[in-house]
Amino acid sequence: MAQFKKNKYLKPFKNWFILIFVVFAVWMLFFDANSWLIHHELNSEIEALENEKKYYKREIEKDKKAIKKLSTEEGMEKFARETYYMKKDNEEIFIIEYEDSLKIKKDD
């Protein structure tokens, strides 16, 4: 006990108000249901969700533009020709592939 009175770092803890305040602050920062740690986790989760929300809004805008293009007769025809290689009865289609776009297996 004599050492407690001599140590200058422990001297403020003789006051009960300071001791109670320190215990309260530690409890609120680390152990309480509304602690700083939980708030930090929740804030990072909110930030991640907001970034995901922005990403999906951009994707929705891209999809709206694609739907707008496909809503016209010309857009639908272009999509069918490019994706499914559809043609009219009196047409012939030639598909040109370049060497760098072909997947060739190299025998070692």
TrEMBL record:
Name recorded for this polypeptide: Septum formation initiator family protein
Coiled coil stretches, renumbered: 39-73
Organism lineage: Bacteria, Pseudomonadati, Bacteroidota, Flavobacteriia, Flavobacteriales
Swiss-Prot/TrEMBL keywords: Coiled coil, Membrane, Transmembrane, Transmembrane helix
Residue ranges crossing the lipid bilayer per the database entry: 12-31
Keyword Zinc-finger among UniProt keywords: no
Residue ranges of every copy of the CYTH domain listed in the record: 48-108
Alphabetical list of Pfam families matching this protein: DivIC (PF04977)
Region forming the signal peptide: none
Keyword Metal-binding: no
